[in-house]
Amino acid sequence: MKKYVITTESGSDLSKEIIDRYNIQVIPMHVIMDDQTYPDGSFEVQKVFDFYEETGTLPKTSGSTPQDNTEVFKKVFAEYPEAHIIHIAYSAVTTVSFNAANIAAQDFENVYLVDSKNVSIGAAAIVKATAQFIEDNPNKSPEDIIAFVEDIRERTHMLFLPKTLLYLRAGGRVSNLAFLGANILKIFPSIKLENGYLVPGRKYRGSFDRSFKKMIKDFFESYNIDPETVLIVGAPSVDDNYKEVIYNLLMENGVQEARWMRAGAVISCHGGPGAIGIAGIEKDITK
To answer: Residue 78: exposed, middle, or buried by beta-carbon count in 10 A (0-12, 13-18, 19+)?
Structure first.
């Protein structure tokens, strides 16, 4: 029976609970502030918001480097010499991280790479499902595991609702005109994942709490989601009352055990404080 170890980037926003439960090894991505580069996860996410408030400059994000990957791969093989690494990468079209992992993997045997085509908790949902698949099917080959990831990534969906468009505007993803119009009309545009890309989703009008309620309703109406795969993410400053409302909405849709994840610095540089996201994997109707 092979020993498998899953690696992934910090931008997947995995909770400590999931990391510890499945022995996931996390490779840092990076955040740049004042020409200083910090490993994602090495500081509180609030620092991103404080920096923007103080300087008016949005922190930049960068992917993992080949050296970042090499260090983690070496650590794994030092502890488990006979291991097979399954590297489930952050969306390859959004960052250099996948290419960096591929470069590092050339110096090792038994490292298998696959693009999750997802970010944040979309990637987290895939990592968690894959870890459970390996646990339930320990005799599967690396190729079987990669095929599993390639299947579920096409059925994984994520919606994200920023509470403010300041960060998307600062990053050039929203025009000044769209920003002003959204503020005047009280419009909250959602963001979704399509083939690895973050793209505009539906627009919601009214208060933020009304908007995220509608987003969650749309999520379950649009996709035949397996309730056991649902993850929720929130950036710092999400109101505790909102969390309670969200838990109730999830229970109404068959989610018995809601998993609340903390948004990391990478996604928070785009979403800003108070943003809320939901992800899950559609049921396989062929089974």
So the answer is: exposed
Report DSSP state, residue 229.
Answer: G
Length of the chain: 287
pTM: 0.94
In this prediction, residue 25 carries a pLDDT of: 98
Tens-digit pLDDT profile for residues 250-267: 999 999 887 789 999 999
CATH pick for 156-281 out of 3.40.190.10, 3.40.50.2300, 3.30.1180.10, 1.20.140.10: 3.30.1180.10
Confidence of residue 177 (pLDDT cuts 50, 70, 90): very low
Sign of CA dihedral 83, 88, 92, 95: negative
Helix axes 120-136 and 142-152, enclosed angle (nearest 10): 140
Distance separating alpha carbons of residues 280 and 76, to the nearest angstrom: 29
Question: Which has the higher per-residue pLDDT, 258 or 32?
Answer: 32
Strands (E), 107-255: 111-115, 156-161, 187-194, 197-205, 231-234
Please state, in angstroms and rounded to a whole number, the distance separating the CA atoms of residues 234 and 263. Answer: 5
